[in-house]
Amino acid sequence: MSDQLQLGFFYNTTHLEGNELHMRRFKADTEARLILAFFKMHPGEFFTPFDVYNALGYTDILKITSVRRSMADLTNTNPPLLEKTDIMKQGERGALNHTWKLV
Prior knowledge:
single chain, alpha+beta, 2 strands, 43% helix, globular
């Protein structure tokens, strides 16, 4: 990871240090790379965070927050790698959710 652009970010709100901080940053970057690879395998398609969550086979519901964070990070890169669209799909619990696509 040292010679590559970091794609996913761990927001250190708990003030971790040392190895624990390094591991959390590494995990966040790995998740973002996995999600970007998913979008690259589906160019031109639109996905909600729950679509991505379900497609990647996550079983721990707390992981949806990691998917959302990763998708936001990939949207906020310069240049952006994902684009949040105005296309909405019904998602979990019946709520409408924005979709994202590969830029």
